[in-house]
Amino acid sequence: MSDIEIRDDRAGGRLEALAGDEVVGHIEYFVLDAPERALVPVHTLVEPEHEGQGIAGALARELYAIAARGGVKVAPLCPYVVKWAARHPEEAPEAGPELLQAAKDWLTAHPDRF
Fold it and tell me: What is the reported pTM?
């Protein structure tokens, strides 16, 4: 995985893993503004030929790092990120139930976004 670069495409709502110019994995997310600002990952995908190389974990780790640097929380709805966060509680502070519910409500109100 040493040749992988991770890029945050905030406008596109994607955190991308690149091998050269090729996107080999990504996390799709949105930014929630209320009840507090949070990054909300919805879906993680790694291209089949790149699975098993730690790319999804690197993406999840970087998403939490970006949130920490920005002083915001992560409210994970993506099943992979939820599992990753449970295995790495020192890097992935838990989001409260109100924040998770607000993220779910936003997603329900924007069905065409993902």
Answer: 0.92
6-15 pLDDT, tens per residue?
999 989 999 9
Token pair for 105: 């409500």
86: burial class by Cβ within 10 Å (0-12, 13-18, 19+)? exposed
Taking CA atoms, 86 is separated from 9, 24, 57, 69, in Å, by 25, 24, 12, 20
Query: Side-chain half-sphere of 68: how many Cα atoms within 13 Å?
Result: 11
Q: Answer whether residue 1 shows pLDDT above 80.
A: no
Cβ atoms 15, 27 nearer than 8 A: yes
Give the single-character DSSP code of 49: G
Nearest to 81 by CA among 105, 62, 57: 57
101 membership: H or E segment, kind and range: helix 97-109
CA distance 35 to 49: 39
